[in-house]
């Protein structure tokens, strides 16, 4: 059966099989997918020309993702690859995909707000003292203070805040951690700072299926009024199983990066890749999720452009 899909300002058609169309007709549970080219590119070197980033991200903006994690307003000394984020975001097309930008402090939040393009502003709040120091230059106490200031600025600008609970699935530094601890921090963030969007982050890609399901269930149970997603790192061959574990734990929001590239350069010496978005795009169909309509032409263009970037 041929189904129309949006191609920028025009229309095209893509072939879906009959059982998938039946799923559309019967409906399915809503779920949401964010592609993270920012996370994919931030640890790369040498510097990728701004024009190449714009071309790649513009293609991604037309695929049909719910959100694009497109850049960060952080120190160019800390993350040189993101030094041109303001120019990149300025050049992106307007589509149905929302734009997210990451910040590490109040200055970055104000820069992102003044820029105007980001719909979502993300802040990494680590429940590992060691990692929070490495990632943002301040410990958990300082991270809490920064987050309080950032959420006030974001709310005043009528933007949306996403808090990434870094080291949400464990950490390699020996700091105290448990699913219950993750649940406690999520509840505190919600009750004391009014956080409504939380992304549980497996920053170093060490969580297995059991841990992912347990943490998701614990956090969602502890804070049922909060929107909870996962930002997982891991190997390509494990992506479907890790995503399904999060689904079983009650999660319906997922982050990935096309090609499975990237990871946090502040976490370990080697980057642990993101889950490949292309593997995740239709996974929830098997678990009762709704069928999303992807723009196959834009996806193919993005994959071609990505090959030239790496």
Q: Can you give keywords for this protein?
A:
310 residues; TIM Barrel; eight-stranded parallel barrel; two-stranded antiparallel sheet; 10 strands; disordered N terminus
Question: What does this 3D model show about the protein?
Answer:
- This protein has 310 residues and is of the alpha/beta class.
- It has a single domain, classed as Aldolase class I (TIM Barrel), CATH 3.20.20.70.
- It has helices spanning 18-26, 37-41, 50-61, 85-91, 106-115, 129-136, 140-156, 179-193, 209-222, 239-248, 277-280, 296-309; strands at 2-7, 10-15, 32-35, 67-73, 98-103, 120-126, 160-166, 197-202, 227-232, 253-256.
- Strands 3-4-5-6-7-8-9-10 form an eight-stranded parallel beta barrel, surrounded by seven helices. It has a two-stranded antiparallel sheet with strand order 1-2.
- Helix 3 packs antiparallel against helix 12 and helix 5 runs parallel beside helix 7.
- It is globular, with a radius of gyration of 18 Å.
- Residues 1-25 have low confidence and may be disordered.
Summarize the structure.
The chain is of the alpha/beta class.
Q: How do the strands and helices of this protein lay out in sequence?
A:
Elements: E1 2-7, E2 10-15, H1 18-26, E3 32-35, H2 37-41, H3 50-61, E4 67-73, H4 85-91, E5 98-103, H5 106-115, E6 120-126, H6 129-136, H7 140-156, E7 160-166, H8 179-193, E8 197-202, H9 209-222, E9 227-232, H10 239-248, E10 253-256, H11 277-280, H12 296-309
Parallel strand pairs: 3-4, 3-10, 4-5, 5-6, 6-7, 7-8, 8-9, 9-10
Antiparallel strand pairs: 1-2
Helix pairs in contact: 3-4, 3-12, 5-7, 8-9, 9-10
